[in-house]
Amino acid sequence: MTTRRGEAVALAGLLAAAGVTHLLRPGVYDPIVPGMLPGPARFWTYASGVAELAVAAAVAHPTTRRAGGRAAAALFVAVLPANVKMAVDWRRRRPTKRAIAYGRVPLQVPLIWWALRVARADTVGRRPR
After folding, report:
1. Does residue 97 belong to any structural domain of this protein?
2. Considering Cα of 80, then 17, then 33, then 86, what sign does the dihedral take?
3. Domain of residue 7, residue span
4. Once rounded to an integer, what is the mean pLDDT over residues 72-97?
5. Considering the domain boundaries, does residue 35 fall inside one?
6. What per-residue confidence (pLDDT) applies to 87?
7. Is residue 129 part of a domain?
8. For a Cys staple, 122 with which of 8, 30, 45, 66, CB 3.0–4.6 Å?
């Protein structure tokens, strides 16, 4: 497996795992859904899980990898408000939980970078479409 393909497979795996946990354990995610979104939090938890699974599939397949990488970057930007909400809500929790919540916010930057790297790597050595 090449490094580029390996990065794409790893990113797809991360997204798929996140998508599955959103669908199987929605109660974990419901509290961090920003209140400004219309409708019930559970809808947004399930919708984000489905989006993560769809993006994982796009990243995993070579013909859709470039678009999938871009979609993954956009998804990581889109979930940033939930991570900020979690950090604010957890500011009075135990230090370990606070560290987890605070760590999720800056973690979005390398995730976005990784997704864009996967999208760009798919175009290396190819003619522009």
Report:
1. yes
2. negative
3. 3-121
4. 95
5. yes
6. 95
7. no
8. 66
